[in-house]
């Protein structure tokens, strides 16, 4: 089985590396030549075009920024759809709007090409470790066939329903992550302003009901002032735009999500859109006129 991989960004590159390390024959494409060369150095191949890549591969994974890019790469002129043979499977691991997934699915099916929407959660660290959480929508038989391939990049791969369901699950994930980071930010700013070491508060509460994977991942980054992006504010804004559009479409008010969206917009306007979403803490720090830092070593 030959696997195509289009999109070697912060997430895509380590995911592709894990596939190569597991022994899969990979054909990669990206606008960043250095990333392509890095994968070639590990044993992957490349192709001169998306059409050529698609014609060589049994399954094609895409990991791209948003719905327009996925539509262009898969359905656009010179796209995957022009080179893929009937029976080819496209696994889109990007986080895009569920409606866009369903539109792409319908167009591919006309050509006998199948689509799984399989967005991921875990950020760059888990992409590197190969321990992502993957939520998948599409045909169940195709999911079963490619489950083992997905597990090379993940510690959890769950089928959640028909086309678009994977991206609905990812939007739900992004709501929980955004609100959790905001809650952690509020708590640590409160601790610092009240004169208590945020590190000790974190250690005290992380083992109880307040503890979470998000807290363990983001609280240390906040206290260390390490905002190197594992997942950028700009990308979380993109996801929350999709969340709010989808929620309005189905008639679900999301007041807390809307508030966090505005907090992220403020962070972006302040120049931190390219930073990790843990930089949400900066919004609360500005309100309280204090900075969350460790006092104990």
TrEMBL record:
One of its GO terms (biological process) is carboxylic acid catabolic process. It comes from Natranaerovirga pectinivora. Gene3D superfamilies: N-(1-d-carboxylethyl)-l-norvaline Dehydrogenase, domain 2 (1.10.1040.10), NAD(P)-binding Rossmann-like Domain (3.40.50.720). PANTHER family: 2-HYDROXY-3-OXOPROPIONATE REDUCTASE (PTHR43060:SF3), 3-HYDROXYISOBUTYRATE DEHYDROGENASE-LIKE 1, MITOCHONDRIAL-RELATED (PTHR43060). It holds the Pfam family NAD_binding_11. Keywords: NAD, Oxidoreductase. Residues 2-161 form the 6-phosphogluconate dehydrogenase NADP-binding domain. This is Tartronate semialdehyde reductase.
């Amino acid at each position: 089985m030959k696997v195509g991989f289009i999109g070697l960004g912060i997430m895509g590159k380590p995911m592709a590396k894990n596939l190569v390390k597991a022994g899969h024959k990979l054909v990669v494409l990206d606008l960043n030549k250095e990333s392509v060369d890095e994968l070639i150095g590990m044993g992957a191949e490349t192709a001169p075009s998306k059409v050529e890549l698609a014609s060589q591969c049994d399954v094609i994974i895409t990991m791209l920024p948003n719905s327009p890019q996925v539509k262009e790469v898969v359905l656009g002129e010179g796209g995957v759809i022009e080179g893929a043979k009937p029976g080819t499977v496209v696994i889109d691991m990007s986080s895009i709007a569920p409606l866009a997934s369903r539109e792409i699915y319908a167009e591919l099916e006309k050509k006998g090409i199948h689509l799984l929407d399989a967005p991921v959660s875990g950020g760059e660290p888990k992409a590197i470790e190969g321990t992502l959480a993957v939520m998948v929508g599409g045909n169940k038989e195709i999911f079963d066939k490619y489950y083992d391939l997905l597990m090379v990049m993940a510690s959890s791969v769950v089928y959640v329903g028909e086309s678009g369901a994977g991206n609905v699950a990812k939007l739900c994930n992004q709501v929980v992550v955004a609100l959790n980071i905001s809650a952690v930010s509020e708590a640590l700013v409160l601790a610092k302003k009240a004169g208590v070491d945020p590190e000790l508060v974190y250690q005290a509460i992380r083992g109880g009901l307040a503890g979470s994977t998000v807290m363990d991942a983001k609280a240390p980054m906040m206290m260390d002032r390490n905002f190197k992006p594992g997942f950028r504010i700009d990308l979380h804004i993109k996801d929350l735009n999709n969340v709010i559009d989808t929620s309005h479409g189905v008639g679900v008010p999301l007041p807390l999500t809307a508030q966090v969206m505005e907090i992220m917009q403020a962070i972006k306007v302040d120049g931190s859109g390219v930073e990790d979403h843990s930089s949400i803490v900066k919004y609360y720090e500005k309100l309280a006129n204090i900075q969350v830092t460790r006092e104990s070593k």
